[in-house]
Design brief:
Elements lengths: L12 E4 L10 E7 L3 H14 L3 E8 L5 H11 L4 E6 L5 H11 L4 E5 L3 E2 L4 H11 L3 E8 L19 H12 L4 E3 L6 E5 H7 L12 H11 L3 E12 L3 H5 L4 H15 L13 H7 L15 H13 L3 H14 L1 H11 L1
Parallel strand pairs: 2-3, 2-5, 3-4, 7-10
Antiparallel strand pairs: 1-4, 5-9, 6-10, 7-9, 8-10
Helix pairs in contact: 11-12, 12-13
Length: 342
Amino acid sequence: MSDAAGNGEGRLFDIDDRRDLLARPDVSIVILVRNNLAHTRACIESVRANTRGYECVVVDNGSTDATPAYLKALVAEEPHRFVVARSETNLGFAAGVNLGILLSAGERVCLLNNDTRVPEGWLWRLRAFLDADPALGAVGPMTNAAGGTIQEVKVPEALPDHLDAADRQWFARHLGPVRRVHRLVGFCLLLSRRAVDAVGGLDVRFGLGNFEDDDLGLRIQLAGLALGMVESVLVYHRGSATFASERIDYRSSLMDAWRVFKDKWDLSPDLAYGSLPIGQILAEHGPADAYLPPVWEFSADTLARVAETYLHRGQEQEALRVVTFGRAHFPEAFARLDAGAQ
């Protein structure tokens, strides 16, 4: 066990990490889970069956079912492939994903919801499009459920049972260049390491979920990178599985996140849901608004611990960026930390 994200009074998280960090994988797949073992198992087993050249960082957001035992067995079976971080409490979606990003070692990072299933060859195809264009910061596939956005498509085959067949047919019909877009839904999102370094992590102010992916896409673009939709890859997505199982009022959570989004990006409080003025936001903001450290709590103490984790792993540039951010937002606290380090 490693307690790289722990505190002086005991671990905040139990982290089972047996990797050789000198061997950097092509992609780190970050999966956040909370209960819903059937969905998690189906997702992870589809990744194991259909993916090459990856590591998988699974963050357990306080599961109370058999999920911890399943994840422990995964690490025992493939200790150099799987990393598991466990929180005793539900950190929220953005905070949990950030812990996974912090622990990722890959050249690229894929954020994958645990209620998805992936077909054969999905990752190398996404990666090929991402790598082919240095201007791209992130790419995403098509799916059966994406909130009515342009990534949502109808397929004749029954999903997820016939996902591989549906994906092969979809690939044959839709193979073509990546399509530049201004918005990608976060059910499956492949980011370049350059994009991860530029934006840091998700904004924890979005709490349990919703709009953190829109916010991330905006910040990738503010950092000078583009978003791409890969129309020839099809990933199954059940959609809102955790909200349903946890009996969270999805509509209420959505509206709460919408208010946070409007306040953050200086939009009118009266702007109706469904109106997403991406062009306006990009025109009124700049690169200085792109970066947020991958924290699980927005505090000076947490920022210091994230910086320490980066230093522990030899990532000096990432640590410096977190410290610089901390000094700008918590000047008094970081002045005390600097004085104590001398």
